[in-house]
Design goal:
The complex is a heterodimer of chains A (441) and B (472).
Chain A (H helix, E strand, L loop, with lengths): L2 H5 L3 H10 L3 H4 E10 L2 E8 L4 E7 L2 E3 L2 E3 L5 H12 L8 E7 L2 E7 L3 E2 H12 L5 H20 L2 E2 L8 E3 L5 E3 L6 E2 L22 H4 L8 H16 L21 H11 L16 H5 L8 H8 L3 H10 L10 H5 L67 H10 L13 H20 L2
Antiparallel strand pairs in A: 1-2, 2-3, 3-7, 4-5, 6-7, 8-10, 9-12, 10-11
Helix pairs in contact in A: 6-8
Chain B lengths: L8 H5 L4 H7 L1 H4 L5 H21 L4 H17 L7 H15 L6 H13 L12 H14 L9 H8 E3 L10 H11 L21 E3 L1 H14 L4 H4 L2 H15 L1 H7 L14 H5 L5 H9 L11 H6 L5 H18 L2 E2 L4 H5 L42 H8 L9 H5 L4 H12 L10 E2 H20 L11 H4 L3
Parallel strand pairs in B: 1-2, 3-4
Classes of the chains: A alpha+beta (441), B mainly alpha (472).
Chain lengths: 441, 472
Amino acid sequence: MHADTSLDPMRIYRAKRDASHVYVKSKYNILGFISSGTYGRVYKAEDASGNLHAIKKFKPDKEGDVVTYTGISQSAIREIALNREISHENVVSLKEVILEDKSIYMVFEYAEHDFLQLIHHHSQTLRCPISIPVLKSLIYQLLNGLLYLHSAHILHRDLKPANILVTSKGQVKIGDLGLARLSAQPLQPLFAGDKVVVTIWYRAPELLLGAKHYNNSIDCWAVACVLAELASRRPIFKGEEAKLDSKKNVPFQRDQLLKIFEVLGSPVEKDWPTMTYLPEYPSLKRLDPYPNRLFDWCQSCLRSQSGYDLLKQLFMYDPDRRLSAKEALEHAWFKEEPLPTANAFASVSPSQIPPHRRITQDDAPSMSMTIPLQPGQSGNAANAPGPPFTQVLSGSSQQAQAQAKSGSHHTGTSGSLGDGPTVYAQGHGHGTTKMRKKRRL
Amino acid sequence: MATDFWASSHYKRWIVDRSTLKQARADDLVYVPASEYLDFFTIYFANLITKLCKKLQLRQRVVATATVFFHRFYLKNSYCETDPYLVLSACCYVAAKAEESPVHIKNIVTDSRTIFSQPPYNVKHFPSDNSKLAEMEFYLVDDLECDLVVFHPYRTLLALCKKESSSSASGGNADMVGEEAEAGELGTGIGAEDGPRYWGTGEGKLELSEAALQTAWFIINDTYRSAICLLYPPHLIAVTAIYLTLVLHIPTQNSIAHLIPYSPAFNPDPAIPAESSQPTPQLRRSSRSSDSSSKQAQQDPIDFLANLNVSLSVISTIAQEIISMYSLWNRYSEEPTLEEARNPHIAGGIGSGTGTGSGSGSPSSAGAGGRMEDLFGDGTGSGSPASHTSQLGPKSGSGNTPGSLGGGETGTDDASSNSSNQNPWSFGQGRLVTAAFLSDMLNSMREARMSDMAHPSSGRPIVVNRMLERTG
């Protein structure tokens, strides 16, 4: 009697849904491949009316050669869920999500540049600093977007140059909410599920010292790192990440802390009374003391008293004394000439604006491209701009593929529930390091 | 913003009206003898979600989110065209992730199979293959339009009320205590500028005994067994739960009785006295007698509610819907009736089954989270239908049918009780509907639908679902 329904009770539903499905390829024209990362690949695409989009395709899970479902990753769920609730001019907007053929496609608005590409353009091509009007506008808009996220109780937890995009009209867009979390009344504490957050160079000292409870101020620390990196065109605290051991214990990040202390001096209890309670405090005490030389550091880069003051206050060791996004936006630096502009490139001559994002042929095509690439474009990998959403390697898809094949931390992680984000942060710092070395050759 | 309800996807896209609800069930209505059965399905599946989540050791907020997902999914789909067991399993899977408490897909599949295959559900077709659930997850997230952040009344409850400082009550609900601890865990810098969230006079939160706070919490849990979470914003449901606690939780009732003036001015809205003051005669009597015993200066809960700046007539409507849900739930049983036990093949035999419902189990297993009614009064007689009837029954006044309680708002219920009277499948007042019966009914609905789809010339009306159009 029930044999019919037992076979597939969802038959009617499935047929209806599949019949009404709009396929990615029927709606978007894939123009080329932008970058790949732990989670999958990002493509440049245009819709029927010619609007540009970045389509992030999450890797399907594989068991051997067979593509299987093991469920939508925690990171994708977060990114989808949070993006559906927010809307702000300085945060990348999610246009739609298409679920088809065991893959998730997130369609974002397109941004031509990102902070990493901008830094690279100035250090490699123009060989000059990013001008103060541009720098100030970028940071102002970044803080503006961050203030929005924080007032929506969203912690970004992965701010870094590669995740901060800029449109061709000079508008900053914070991207990649894959590690972001709602901080208001969490059902699980923040540290549950993600032992490691924020790429090592941008990780706040309380996180490096093992704090389990943290807040918005970790994002503000990252903003300070980004500000310093834009000003000097190199990461200010370029430490080596100590890897998780086989039991996934988080090690003491000695090198990263030393890189911070070399510029900011060693933290003292007077300035940060609660640091003595942090798990890694005993290890911290064993490190040599360093003096603060942030002022000297700023002399060569920022050349502004109030700019130095903003950086100093964002680099407060004590998270409670660190400037919030709101306080930072009200800082005197943004009120003195040159004032920040809505178009960060307003003061830049067209020839100085970084070139458009390079797109290449997808080496491991998981989406067929409809427009053939111009000759010579795919061989140019090393000069290609940084990744917009993803972290590992930019331009060179060969490199990305090679790394994805060789590095065990790049495979098979996107579907796992618990430790995906942990591996993400770890693999990420590692990948970035490699990329930088490659570029500076 | 993710914490501003008025800017949320929940408010903008998922608060619907009654006609949308009715429309959503139109296809199913063709295959059931009376629309009331569809309301029983809501209880049936909400109980199952609770059961599955408890087995997976998920917290109440995950249960709530999963149930909301389930309700939302069936705004666009029909029971008869889907496998609700697979859907509810996927709802729990996605909700666990959305609430940052992920569980492995294998565990969900295993526990779903275990629970569903047992009596009274006897569902043997749940796929053992993870990929079937993962595929359902895709369809589900798509049908949910990727809106995965859900607001619940619990937050408002804890923002409006606090435990009496002198409370000596014990045996707290782990969920509730945990929730409070989490709120305190926020740390500095987060929401510091938000301040405490309550409306009104700003004089502070309403102090309730721990037991009363629990009662309100349990009432909120129970609201997920109806479509209330689709019809009203969560803060209004929370206020209603507080109101019902004040009215129905007997110790609380007694402790505040002296503060409640016996006058028509108690409630300017005619809808409320019709339902609240009338069914609670104790409240009136004690209001005079216990004046002398009033201890210290107490908050006036009436003032508190009045100052919340919410529409009290909406609150009274929600209160009526909650009571309708309870009276329906009183007639639902997870245990088989005697007749069913004797002859498991006559599902329809329920209609003439144990009339009074005495002696059959109340949804005890589903009530693992604690059903509100169990807490009323002295707290004895937990789970037995007799105690429900004696405590809630009289309070519901003369009209114990959902229709009469619901007033104009529940016109559909009126229609359903009318139609059920003319139907050979009808069950009278107080007749029980069992889980096994509903499980069988669902199978026949699906079979009938399948054969109708195979032979579309059957003349059944074809219904257009409005919720489907907006995804197109």
